[in-house]
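Recap quiz, item 2
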Amino acid sequence: MAWLLVFVETALFIALAPLFAGWVKWVKCWLQNRRPPSLLQPYRDLAKLFRKRPVIADQASWVFEAAPYIVFATAVFSAGIVPFVAAHMPTAKIADLIVLVGFFALGRFFLTLAGMDLGTAFGGMGSSREMMIASLAEPAMLMAIFTLAMSASTTNVSQAIDWVQQSGLVLRPSFAFALAGLIMVAVAETGRIPIDNPATHLELTMVHEAMVLEYSGKYLALMEWASQIKLMLYGVLIANIFFPWGIAHDFSPDTLGRGFVAIAAKLALLGAVLPTGETLFAKMRVFRYQEFLGFAYLLSLLGMLSHVILEVN
Amino acid sequence: MMFLSYVGLVAALLSGAISLVMITPERSKRLLIGLAERLTFQSAAEGLARQKDDRFHRSVEYAAFGLLGLSGIAVLASGLGALLSEQVVTDQLPFGLPWLAWHLRLDALSGLFLAVIGVAVIAVSLYGPGYVRKFRRSGHSFPVLGFCTGWFVAGMELVVLADDAFLFMIAWELMSVASYFLVAFHHEHAANRRASFLYLLMAVVGAIHLILAFGVVAAFAPNFTFEALRGTPLSPFWATIAFSLALVGFGMKAGLVPLHAWLPAAHPVAPSHISALMSGVMLKVAVYGFIRFVFDLLGDVHWGWGMSTLALGTGSAALGALYALQQNNLKRLLAYSSIENIGIIFMALGLSMIFSGNGHGDLGVIGFIAALYHVVNHAVFKSLLFLGTGTVLQQAHEDNLEHLGGLVKRLPRTSVIFLVGCVAISGLPPMNGFVSEWLTFQTALQVSAIDSGVVRSMIPVAAALLAFTGAVAAAAFVKVYGVGFLGQPRSRHAAHAREALHPGMLLGPAFLAMLCVVLGVFPTWVIEALDNVSEQLMAVKLPGASAHGWLWLTPVSRSVASYSGPLVFLAFALAGWVIYRLLLTSPDAVRARRGPRWDCGFGGLSPRMQYTSTAFSQPLRRVFHPVFELSERVDAEPRGHKLLTPAALDYQLEVSDRSWRHAYQPLAGWIEAAARQVGRIQTGNIRTYIAYSFFTLLLLLGVVS
């Protein structure tokens, strides 16, 4: 029964990811006084791409064709692990936060390899920059996770959620810093402004788009869908770890329904905050990324230090 | 079990000896025929007599590598036996000094490292016959290679078995000297001679530190056996001195920054299968020595030692990864990556020492096991990557990434095996590298058990640097695979490379690749085995790493952290199957069309327009420019007007690590200056020397009386 629920929940997660992306886009358009596309537009795009006949470059190797599947699979596995509607799913034990970071890294490994497979300059450039961002973002992310894990003395997401809920609504300086750091990392890792611009097609400024430039048809659809799942994953992680209230702890339909409404509301709110930031800031030059991510690291470090200094009894 | 290790030792020595028949192939062949006739093996003698020179040559190579493989199998078996049975076997051999026979001991720790040596040696002996074939034509001497390989392996096996300081140092030097000749194998290039000399020099300096370290402990002990050293209580002062000497001595061999200068110079110039042994195994033998000395002989671990080990390890890991990313030579890159991995091992050891020294032996043991796990993992995937590089080097005649590319189509099987190694070394699930890094993170996370606030805030910083290291290492191996194996060939050689003909050259790496997967998917079994080592050495067992069955890895407890390697692997396998059945082989799957790449409408994309290896690492080079010694030069041939683009551009970039100019060169300068001062008393006149001896004797007599 619980395992069935895992599959339903994961399926729901990946089915709703395009909707979340659509919502972010919708709010962003609205903030910028543009007419937003329908909320369902990402679904139409995906459906269109799946129907289209893909073109694969003559020079492509098997890595190019396999990469979208691997990237998508890692995104789906991550979605299966992260508590979405309910905590303490059977899958929560399989992998903790560090394994989750490992899954992200695995997906990125193959994404960047795919970017380099055809030997075009764009792909290589995107891969190179993606690895730079990852190298700078990963220590910041780990530091934020560490702050959380040291407070809750666990790296298991469900256990951490329990701990946050038990300790009640208190303002912990360490958590405030870690949250700020993690949000900055999430912005960088999901390729949003000010690090990367998902809407751009100016080749010299793009990172993610440069890597997937050669993809088309179902391959592109898988890549796009995976990045939408990743965006929502970060949203769910932040929402459920730092504001876990409302998440279901047992699997009765009643609490599950309440959990779903809670996470939907939290995601809707986060999905409004993200485009607000994107509207307020401009994209950075590539060689200012280290300042942005260095700041994220500093914030997480401050969080960890304030945990060590202030909160240990 | 001891018998099996002797078989291994003798087989390795014989494998060295048998290569010597190739010094005078004609005479040895006649000798062998005579021997076979004398022993009435008529058919063998006739067979030998009929063999052509080339065939005879090949048989000798097969015999040498076969014996090496036998040695590998024997030590693997005896090592696993000792590791799993938890028995301690000791023995004495009537060699060595008159009052000190050779003491040998096989316990779980030696067993583990013997098994590691065995695995790598088996892979190398499968790989070797195909690889050394190329030296037959190039005029390199097989006797030197084979003899030194055999004795090098025997030396490493003996180091691990040694149970007294004398035998340990003899075996250690045997290992160092034999590997010196292997590094100097391609001695026709001056750079290689320089590298091998640097290696020998640093090996000697390291050995001096070790002799002093053993000397400090032995000064308080009745004799030189480890048994006696183990029982000797040392004052904290002398124990710290012994520890520091051992850290420098073993750290020099293991390649800790800043004692690493020889490593990136020496590993690339040895033949590839030797590089695999040196990087995969010899560095581990140094780790073995460190563990044996600190955890076993010194015993009472002080947490301050752990802090210095952690600091050195973290520095080595982060800098090793950054330097590795900047290399364009594949073997040099792998050598720097070894420094990084040794750094991770020492980080975990440092964490273990900090926890044990603070009285948390149950947490220290997690770090200890993480270190041992990473030892095994690194031995497996680094040997795999060096062997793969050897195949690339042999088939494409290039190990510079800037001249490679497109190998995934030219060497399809090698490139799949190599990809497994790349994923494993980047610490990605579900491969083995991930598990040991995960365990290291879990150790670091237990930091709240420690009282000191400084330590408690330093350890997470080190762990964040470990995350950084992992990400940079992944970048380095994306570069290796993306530039070297994917894309378009950048040189004629790379474009015409073909899969190696000898099956062993695929089998050896494939064996290691399989181990990468198995070690990653079944971590609980590996940890149960490694736990025997910690039980013998630290008298603590990991409480519940596998308390929830083989499916769940729970180093601390189930609520703190859990990882299920088998389930993650199962998920990937299932996903692969679904994708294969539903999307690739289903009849109504949308078939892809082949077309040209996107060239912005200009046409004529050439391989030279690809992102290069130098370009790939440029962003991180620029972000972390203070840690590199960069010299960049651009020569532009102008077209006559400053507004016109230059006719030709010549761009040269050299990246080296700073330690050479800022530590080694000043040190060498000081030593030279000091030597010049000392040289003043060297008059070259015999009378002066007699006077020196006379006054020294007087002085000594005065001291003694």
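Residues 121-152 of chain A form the longest helix (32 residues).
The mean pLDDT of chain A is 89.
End of item.
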